[in-house]
């Protein structure tokens, strides 16, 4: 079979990562979490004391970090200059700064290049999840899915491991990040015209996975 390329985009908390990993594992495809790459470069900027409010400073060092993504859906890995950063890229500090870093065109150009080279070298195909995969990174993907969910459902999913009193704060942070991601000039979060939109608000994770697996199988 020809390699199949699947783009899964959408805002935070829609179940993109869980869905993408499970679909890739079920179908024997590679998997790439592009949000993790933007988080990794943000981690590098923070660690190296780069002023996050200064796009010129960010642009000047956009090419410095060596980011390597492991594409096994059962064990996705990410390193920066050889250091495993899978844990630190999920910190609140990185989460609050990633939208500013990922809005810088030089950062996007660099990361997009990495993404395209990983996608074209995946022998059996790949599931790539992010914000601009269907619109910008892989416009010729065989299947494009755009996941949505109500803000309440997204906040509840994101704060699953927190106390319920934190849901309000999580919801606000999430809405702020989505607004920043959707309004930036370079490849904002957007649904591609030819993407299939799946509203996951009333669906279980298993149902979303099944839906996307069926969509991929229809394309093969
Ligand atoms: O998916 P995740 O929440 O880990 O993404 C973190 C951030 O990375 C997003 O809020 C967005 O700023 C950025 N991102 C992006 N383009 C992508 C994937 C993520 O700008 N394709």
TrEMBL record:
Q: InterPro entries, from UniProt?
A: Cytidylate_kin (IPR003136), Cytidylate_kinase_dom (IPR011994), P-loop_NTPase (IPR027417)
Q: How is this protein annotated for GO cellular component?
A: cytosol
User: Where is the Cytidylate kinase domain positioned along the sequence?
Assistant: 6-217
Swiss-Prot/TrEMBL keywords: ATP-binding, Cytoplasm, Kinase, Nucleotide-binding, Transferase
Annotated Pfam families: Cytidylate_kin (PF02224)
A molecular-function term among this protein's GO annotations: CMP kinase activity
Q: What is its EC number?
A: 2.7.4.25
Can you supply a Gene Ontology BP term from the record? pyrimidine nucleotide metabolic process
Known catalytic reactions: CMP + ATP = CDP + ADP; dCMP + ATP = dCDP + ADP
Kindly list the positions annotated as binding ATP: 10-18
Cellular localisation: Cytoplasm
Report what the protein is called.
Answer: Cytidylate kinase
Organism expressing this protein natively: Streptomyces sviceus (strain ATCC 29083 / DSM 924 / JCM 4929 / NBRC 13980 / NCIMB 11184 / NRRL 5439 / UC 5370)
- Gene coding for it: cmk
């Amino acid at each position: 079979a020809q390699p199949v390329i699947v783009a899964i985009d959408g805002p935070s908390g829609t179940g993109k990562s869980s869905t993408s990993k499970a679909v890739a594992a079920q179908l024997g495809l590679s998997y790439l979490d592009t949000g993790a790459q933007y988080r990794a470069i943000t981690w590098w900027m923070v660690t190296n004391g780069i002023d996050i409010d200064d796009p010129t400073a960010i642009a000047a060092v956009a090419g410095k970090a060596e980011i390597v993504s492991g594409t096994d859906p059962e064990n996705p890995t990410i390193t920066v200059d050889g250091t495993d950063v899978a844990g630190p890229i999920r910190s609140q500090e990185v989460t609050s700064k990633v939208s500013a870093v990922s809005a810088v065109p030089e950062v996007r150009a660099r990361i997009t290049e990495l993404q395209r080279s990983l996608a074209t070298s995946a022998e059996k195909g790949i599931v790539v999840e992010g914000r601009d995969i269907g619109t910008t990174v892989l416009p010729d993907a065989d299947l494009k899915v755009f996941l949505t969910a109500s803000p309440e459902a997204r906040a509840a999913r994101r704060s699953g491991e927190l106390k319920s009193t934190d849901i309000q704060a999580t919801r606000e942070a999430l809405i702020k990040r989505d607004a920043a991601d959707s309004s930036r000039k370079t490849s904002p979060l957007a649904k591609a015209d030819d993407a299939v939109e799946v509203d996951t608000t009333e669906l279980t994770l298993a149902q979303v996975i099944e839906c996307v697996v069926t969509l991929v199988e229809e394309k093969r």
